[in-house]
Write a structure and sequence with these properties.
Elements (H helix, E strand, L loop, with lengths): L1 E5 L3 H13 L3 E5 L2 H10 L4 E5 L7 H10 L6 E5 L4 H10 L3 E4 L4 H15 L6 E4 L2 E4 L4 E4 L2 E3 L3 H12 L7 H8 L10 H13 L8 E4 L3 E4 L2
Parallel strand pairs: 1-2, 1-3, 3-4, 4-5
Antiparallel strand pairs: 6-7, 7-8, 8-9, 10-11
Helix pairs in contact: 2-3, 6-8
Amino acid sequence: MRILIVEDEKALANNLKRGLSEEGYSADVAYDGEEGGFMAETEPYDLIILDIMLPKVDGFTLLKNIRKQGIKAPVLMLTAKDAISDKIKGLDTGADDYIIKPFDFDELLARVRALLRRKGEVKSAVIGIGDLEIDTAGHQVKRGGKDINLSAREYALLEYLAYNKDKVVTRIDISEHIYDYDFDLDSNIIDVYINFLRNKIDKGFEKKLIHTVRGAGYILKE
């Protein structure tokens, strides 16, 4: 899943990017509201982490603008302010959740996971496709009761397919949602990771779950 961080405190923004990347998310950073607005309007993010006190364009104004543009990505507002009026204003402007600095990174991750499940219309933290179980909270995967060890990138790809189970996703869809701004679409890395997943998810099982739709993309289904 691809996340945009709009935060002017560079140390915090870069720590968030690093932490999210270690969890398998793809993260881009904007250090002011103007840049953040441009990136939000030109790239398909699955979630936006947005500070309120930003240079050039403040977080409330940025949020209002992107909602006017029809951007529906969940927004987690991140701020040092703890006044009730700021929470109300953020939620009324179109934010989906709110967390106060300083915060525990594990709590932020839990809120990110909850917002992504809501976006994907997934109610439970465990997604099931046949005998495949994906625990989005613990990043644990099992098939037929057997643990499957995945790298962070393999897990990110599987989770994206799972959130879109029974739907065909193109290579462009995958590149836009699990890789960052600098990804080279001409590389064959997506096909390589699809093959990695097949070897771990489908190999040894009679029923295959990862399917290629010729000329279209890939689909995860029973």
